[in-house]
Design brief:
Shape: globular
Helix content: 25-40%
Structural class: alpha/beta
Number of domains: 1
Strand order of the largest sheet: 2-1-3-6-5
Mean pLDDT: 86
Order of helices and strands: EHEHEEHEHEHHE
Largest sheet: 5 strands, mixed
Distance between the termini: 35 Å
């Protein structure tokens, strides 16, 4: 395939991402490090990366996380259909952690994904709602509200493969 179907954008500062390796990808995927230089430039950086992305589906990932094979296949199918869509990944909940259970409950009630879940969306939908908007302590809150004005989210995809528990962007 000549066009990338999916662009993975790993969120984080240059310092935070400097030791990460890009995973092995097939020819339908693109993997980009955000490399934020300043907290005030996060929104502009994301908008610029999404605009330059080759994929139809954009996935914003926390540092050291990657979708599993089932999620990648689902994202490729969504991209091939080329419809406006958005969603996130489930919270990994292997241990019986009360805090994680509360986060999962909160996501189900409010339908706003947390940074550790990542978020995916169609590139066309992203620009139709005016981009990411505000990127604060709950990074996906504003963009989720914007997407909800257009369409409801897809059911969550399987949880991300998490290589570290440090989701700090800086």
């Amino acid at each position: 395939m000549s066009q990338e179907l999916i662009t993975y954008i790993v969120l984080g500062s240059s310092e935070r991402l400097k030791n990460l390796k890009k995973p092995d990808l097939d020819n339908s995927e693109e993997y980009i490090f955000a490399n934020f230089t300043d907290k005030d430039q996060i929104v502009l950086t994301i908008d610029d990366l999404v605009a330059k992305a080759k994929g139809r589906i954009i996935v914003l990932l926390p540092p050291s996380c990657m979708p599993d094979k089932r999620s990648k296949n689902a994202l490729k199918k969504i991209s091939m259909i080329d419809i406006s869509t958005w969603g996130w990944f489930e919270i990994k909940n292997k241990e019986k952690d009360i805090l994680k259970s509360l986060k999962k409950f909160s996501v189900n009630i409010r339908s706003i994904p947390t940074i550790e879940q990542g978020i995916y969306f169609n590139k066309r939908l992203y620009f139709s709602v005016g981009g990411v908007g505000e990127f604060g302590s709950k990074p996906f809150k504003e963009i989720s509200k914007r997407f909800y004005t257009r369409i409801d989210p897809q059911n969550p995809l399987p949880s991300l493969i998490i290589r570290t528990k440090n989701f700090n962007l800086f």
